TrEMBL record:
Organism: Streptomyces lacrimifluminis
InterPro entries listed in its UniProt record: DHFR-like_dom_sf, RibDG_C, Riboflavin_Biosynth_HTPR
Single GO MF descriptor: 5-amino-6-(5-phosphoribosylamino)uracil reductase activity
Domain of life: Bacteria
A GO BP entry: riboflavin biosynthetic process
Name of the protein described by the UniProt record: Deaminase reductase
Pfam families per record: RibD_C
SUPFAM superfamilies per record: Dihydrofolate reductase-like (SSF53597)
Bacterial bifunctional deaminase-reductase C-terminal domain residues: 2-182
PANTHER family: 2,5-DIAMINO-6-RIBOSYLAMINO-4(3H)-PYRIMIDINONE 5'-PHOSPHATE REDUCTASE, DIHYDROFOLATE REDUCTASE FAMILY PROTEIN (AFU_ORTHOLOGUE AFUA_8G06820)
Length: 190
């Protein structure tokens, strides 16, 4: 069985929208505009590339990352890694040719079936809607959260407001940095 890991930049109030400067959000770029950059706080991002065997995204994140990440040295390990895009509308013609093997999954059932296969961990980047849906379906196994000391108010949230049973998490790694960032790694307790 494969492990699904959600990795996210998140404000203290749970917002994950437009951390890298994506247009259309009032606080776009909040990860680099409002908090001092400390390389050690982002060590986990490099480790994720080394430890993951595949990458998963929703359509919106795929459309944001695929024109940029294939040519970025910082994300070189992801270029050769298999990718899965969960989308009901994306077609094979929409996939970029220079980012390695990419498979389109059409449903959460497809994701659940993928989890049952052999292979290493699958890392989920961005993809707020997908992460919420996977979390609500009980398919996420681990969360890698870089929590920023900011309150952003409105914006896409990492977790849904669905009324559901308590989902217990176990803190397996944490660190606080001089710029106020907190790294929290949680395993989902089943």
């Amino acid at each position: 069985m494969r492990t699904l890991i959600s990795t996210a930049f998140v404000s203290l109030d749970g917002v994950v929208e437009a951390p890298g400067g994506e247009p259309g959000y009032r606080n776009s770029g909040w990860t680099f505009k409002d908090v001092e950059f400390l390389p050690e706080a982002f060590e986990i991002k490099g480790r994720e590339q080394k430890e993951a065997a595949a990458m998963m995204m929703g359509r919106v994140s795929y459309e944001a990352f695929s024109p940029v990440w294939p040519n970025m040295e910082d994300f070189a390990d992801y270029k050769v890694m298999p990718k899965y895009v969960v989308s009901t509308t994306l077609t094979e013609d929409d996939l970029v040719p220079n980012w390695g093997e990419t498979t389109i999954l059409r449903s959460l059932d497809d994701v659940a079936a993928l989890k049952e296969t052999e292979g290493g961990p699958i890392i989920i980047h961005g993809s707020a809607t997908l992460t919420r849906d996977l979390s609500d379906a009980g398919l996420i196994d681990r969360y890698h959260l870089l929590v920023f000391p900011l309150l952003l108010g409105a914006g896409k949230r990492l977790f849904s407001a669905t009324d559901k049973d308590t989902q217990k998490l176990k803190l397996v790694e944490s660190e606080t940095y001089a710029n106020g960032l907190q790294k929290n790694v949680f395993d989902v307790v089943r």
